[in-house]
Design brief:
Length: 195
């Protein structure tokens, strides 16, 4: 019988979200859009993908596990309710995607918005996901007296949240690499004596 993970998902998400937002805030629009020769995605693409995936995750969980009795505020997907695909003039084949499964050509051609708009979407997506996790933790603080099917569903939701957390960490690493290629410094490198 599996034992629930001994980690605070909400704290972990807030922590990685804070790191990613601080990382992105330091960059210029040019740095966000830069791509090495022969490479299809920029830091901006990774930030959009993280925003889109975080935005989509609540909706995907609720569709896959209906009847959880959660009090969800606001629209399930900012991307859809605000018509961001149309607003940002994304190609039709990228309207419904979260960035996974796009061809290299399509990914390279996405019209990633300016930094302020992109980070506003990322911030709102992160806040909505954090609120969602807080609601899950509030409604299901433990597994006591929980019917077996519901218990299994909550365990799977929490497992998928952990998988998603590692997804954010992987994209942060890719973005740090892209920044390092441009500047010679990633977030783990200290600038010393102006070098």
């Amino acid at each position: 019988m599996p034992i629930p993970a001994a980690y605070d998902a909400l704290h972990s998400f807030k922590d990685i979200h804070k790191v990613i937002l601080a990382f992105a805030e330091e960059l210029t629009d040019e740095q966000l859009n830069w791509k090495p020769e022969g490479y299809s995605t920029s830091i901006g693409f990774h930030l959009w993908h993280l925003a889109r995936e975080s935005d989509y995750l609540r909706s995907a969980i609720l569709k896959h596990y209906p009847g959880l009795g959660l009090d969800i505020k606001g629209d399930l997907e900012i991307w859809i309710s605000e018509g961001l695909a149309q607003k940002w003039k994304f190609p039709v084949e990228a309207h419904e995607t979260v960035g996974t499964g796009l061809s290299d050509e399509t990914a390279a051609s996405l019209p990633i918005p300016k930094k302020d708009e992109l980070l506003a979407y990322l911030q709102r997506s992160y806040e909505a996901l954090e609120d969602f996790i807080e609601e899950i933790d509030s409604v299901f603080p433990n597994y006591e007296s929980m019917e077996q099917k519901l218990k299994k569903n909550i365990e799977m939701i929490r497992y998928n949240l952990l998988v998603f957390l590692t997804h954010d960490c992987r994209h942060l690493g890719m973005m740090e690499c892209l920044k390092g290629l441009q500047t010679g410094f990633g977030s783990a490198t200290e600038k010393r004596n102006g070098k």
